[in-house]
Design goal:
Distance between the termini: 42 Å
Strand content: over 45%
Shape: globular
Structural class: mainly beta
CATH class: Mainly Beta
Strand order of the largest sheet: 1-2-3-5-6-7-8-9-10-11-12-13-14-15-16-17
CATH superfamily: Porin
Number of helices: 2
CATH architecture: Beta Barrel
Order of helices and strands: HEEEEEEHEEEEEEEEEEE
Number of domains: 1
CATH topology: Porin
Largest sheet: 16 strands, antiparallel, barrel
Number of strands: 17
C-alpha cells in the first residue's frame, strides 16, 4: 500500500512539473550577465537566496539526523530553559573547482566559488528568544550575524545600498541575514523584520543541509531572505498555513524598484511518513524583476527507518534581467547507517530560459560528535546542450555550540 501511494505521489509531481513547464514563455539564450553577487549598480550580475533553517542542528527537517544519543550529548552555551539563547557554528571547507552554471560563463555561480584553498565559509552567531504561543500571548526575537566566504550571499543584495550590502573584505564578508521580532498566541504567530525565506528545501545556513554544495535551483531560482511580515497559523493537526507581505526578494529595510510581493504557503503532514509543503511568492520581486510568480513544492517521504526520499519542484516566471523562466526538479535519497553516519544523493535537472543543466552529487555526513560533522562529497555537472561536463570534489566540517 505504501509503495502504491509513493508511486502515485511521484506521478502527480511529474505531471505538475510538466504542466508548469508548458506555461513557460519562449526560450532564450543564457545571458552572460546572469547571476553573480549583487554590486551597487543595476547592470551588475544578480544572485538569489534561501530558507527557513532549524534554529540549532536537529533532525526535525531538511535531511537532518535522528537522535544525538549515539554520538554523544550535544553541547550548547545556554540551557534549554534560559530566557534567551546565544548559539552558532563555524564551518570551513575545501573544494577543487567552482560550481559552474554553463559554458557561457567562466566563473562559478553558487556558494563554493573560492576553490583550491581552505575557506571559512560561515562563522555564524545568533541570539534568540522563542515566542511560545502554547502558554498564551508571548513575544520573541531573532538576530543572526555571519562572517565568511558565504556571507555575501546572505547579504541584502536585493537593494543597492544600506543594511549589510557593503560589508565586504575581498572574498570574505559580513551579513545580518535575520533581525526580527515575533508575537505568538495559541496556534498563531507573526514575525516582522528581516528573515529567511520559507521557499525551497535547501538553506543558506550550513547546518540546515546534508550537502556541502548547493543545487543550481536553490541558488538561481529562489530568494534567500525577505524583509516584511509573515504569519503562520496551525489550522489543524499537522496543517500550517503561511501568509505575509515582503519588500521583494533579498532586501534589507529598503524597498528597491517597487518591490512588493505576497509570501505564503501551506505545510501538510499527511501521516508519519509523508509531508508536503507548497510555498509561493507573487508580485514585484524588486531587483529580481516584476510581474513575478514563483512556487516550490517539496515532498518528504520516510520510506523506512533508514531510507528517506525528498523531491522538490520549483517554477519561476518573472519579467527580469535574465533567467526569466526557470523550472527545476531536485531529488534527494538519504540512507542512515546509524545516527552518526549518513549517505546522501542529489540528482537535479534545472532548465533556465531554454537550456537544461544537470548535476549529481553523492556524499556522506560523518558525525564525530553531536556538535561536530564532516561532509565529503563528489559532484558531477553536465550541460547536454552546451557540450560541458565537470567533476568536483569537496569536503567541509562544522562545529556547533
Amino acid at each position: 500500500m505504501r509503495l502504491y501511494r509513493f508511486c502515485s505521489l511521484l506521478a502527480a509531481l511529474g505531471m505538475l512539473s510538466l504542466s508548469t513547464a508548458a506555461v513557460a514563455q519562449e526560450s532564450r539564450a543564457v545571458s552572460r550577465t546572469s547571476y553573480g553577487y549583487a554590486q551597487v549598480d543595476e547592470t551588475a550580475p544578480y544572485v538569489a537566496a534561501e530558507t527557513n533553517p532549524p534554529l540549532v542542528y536537529s533532525g526535525a527537517s531538511r535531511g537532518g539526523w535522528g537522535s544525538d544519543d549515539y554520538c554523544g550529548d550535544p553541547w550548547t552555551l545556554f540551557p534549554e530553559d534560559a530566557p534567551f539563547v546565544i548559539g552558532g557554528w563555524v564551518q570551513g571547507g575545501y573544494h577543487n573547482k567552482t560550481t559552474p552554471l554553463s559554458t557561457t560563463r567562466g566563473d562559478g555561480l553558487a556558494f563554493n566559488d573560492v576553490p583550491h584553498r581552505f575557506n571559512i565559509h560561515q562563522a555564524y552567531l545568533y541570539a534568540e528568544r522563542v515566542a511560545d504561543g502554547d502558554q498564551g500571548f508571548d513575544w520573541g526575537f531573532r538576530l543572526d550575524a555571519v562572517y565568511g566566504t558565504d556571507a555575501r550571499y546572505a547579504q541584502s543584495f536585493g537593494q543597492t545600498s544600506g543594511w549589510d550590502t557593503s560589508w565586504d573584505h575581498g572574498t570574505y564578508s559580513w551579513a545580518l541575514p535575520q533581525a526580527y521580532v515575533e508575537l505568538a498566541s495559541g496556534p498563531l504567530s507573526v514575525k516582522a523584520g528581516h528573515f529567511y525565506t520559507i521557499i525551497g528545501y535547501e538553506a543558506v545556513p550550513a547546518i540546515s543541509n546534508f550537502f556541502y554544495s548547493h543545487s543550481l535551483t536553490m541558488f538561481n531560482s529562489e530568494p534567500f531572505t525577505h524583509t516584511g511580515a509573515l504569519a503562520s497559523l496551525e489550522v489543524a493537526d499537522g496543517v500550517t498555513v503561511y501568509g505575509g507581505w515582503t519588500l521583494g526578494w533579498d532586501t534589507g529595510f529598503e524597498q528597491y524598484s517597487g518591490g512588493s510581493n505576497f509570501l505564503g504557503g501551506v505545510s501538510f503532514e499527511a501521516n508519519d511518513w509523508l509531508t508536503l509543503t507548497y510555498a509561493t511568492t507573487i508580485g514585484d520581486f524588486g531587483m529580481r524583476g516584476d510581474d513575478g510568480y514563483m512556487h516550490s513544492i517539496v515532498a518528504t517521504v520516510q520510506l523506512t527507518e533508514s531510507w528517506q526520499y525528498v523531491v522538490q519542484s520549483d517554477y519561476l516566471t518573472v519579467n527580469g534581467p535574465s533567467f526569466n523562466d526557470t523550472i527545476g526538479i531536485n531529488q534527494y535519497l538519504f540512507y542512515w547507517f546509524n545516527d552518526c553516519l549518513g549517505w546522501g544523493n542529489r540528482l537535479e535537472w534545472w532548465k533556465a530560459d531554454g537550456l537544461s543543466h544537470w548535476e549529481y552529487t553523492t556524499g556522506f555526513n560523518i558525525k564525530a560528535h553531536a556538535n561536530w560533522v564532516f561532509r565529503p562529497e563528489i559532484r558531477y555537472d553536465w550541460v547536454p546542450g552546451g557540450n560541458f561536463d565537470q567533476w568536483t570534489f569537496g569536503v567541509d566540517s562544522y562545529v556547533t555550540w
